[in-house]
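Can anyone check this?
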Amino acid sequence: MKFASNSQKFKPQSIIRTISFLGALSFISCNSDDPVKDNPSSPALETRTEEIAGNLNHPWGLAFLPDGRMLVTERGGNLRVVDTTGGLSDPIAGLPDIAVGGQGGLLDVALHPQFGENKLIYLTFTEPGTGGTSSALGRGVLESNQLNDFEVLFSQDDKVSNTTHFGGRIVFSGEYLYVTLGERNEPEEAQNKSNHQGTIVRLFHDGSVPPDNPFANDASARPEIWSYGHRNVQSAAIDPRSGTFWVVEMGPQGGDELNEVIPGENYGWPSVSWGSQYSGEPIPDPPTQPQFKDAIIHWTPVISPSGTVFYTGTMFPEWTNHLLIGGLSAKGIVVVEVNGSEATEVSRMDFNQRIRNVRQAPDGSVYVLTDQPDGKILRIYKSSN
């Protein structure tokens, strides 16, 4: 079996990994001030990892097509098809103008729930404009190696001149979709509902605003806003059992957070945080200001979460109904068990490289994207031995 890209062919590489479910690590805390205690270890889980494709420029988003191929975005501005042998297509034509720089560029990709009928794919990207850039959502019809009839459905207010904190994850849930939006490194704007910075927005599939959004009738707020007071969310997923919406967001110096997203709630940034400013200046802890919604789990040192999925496959029954969270600083996958509104970290899988995204494949294996100029798509599967 060969794994090929445009410029290089890859030899299959399998790495056996053994993961012990050790329970939450001692530096993880929940809503109380007491650290979570270690749980007794569970039997080790043996996995294998193979490289599917490489030579990707900071891959960011991944979506599985019904025929077994994949779509992968490169932050540098390209969208490619990955075939079933790992071969990479030429860049797909028909994309919008994209401002590439810093943390910005082409971000997430997702299929419309009825993709088999309408061939619609959705992209988040950094949109250029007067005054700088903003995060935007658009969609187009995928035909062969071309994206046709692309339209911008949503553009974050306002345009900002820096190149950081774009958010950018897309999550579908029934007739709605959610987009996570960073505060663009302007922290105070996360408390300003008259723009979209530091928010999560909920839209209909065509980009229109649901009339029951929490601020739809508030003249002082943007009607698309579902929740606010976020810093930079790049991990988001719906619990398939309950429909609960979860995000994992990046804190400042310390204080990454797992949050249950409640419509209309304020998550407190920058008024409160479990971390501190990069200067070392302290930030009030969330319990000191209970008007803000607190995290279910917070991490110090940080994991730098990016990409997450609720595992529902059969290949890894040990992971059923667990969140698999990509970690840029953690350089691996953080596994979190979720029960209702409670959550506990149970294990980590070390890759010794920055993990940008985690997706579940149709066969129940898990795919990850590594964040580097020559990034890779890696497949994790269970050993048959």
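Reply from J.R.: I decoded it. The chain has one domain: 3-382.
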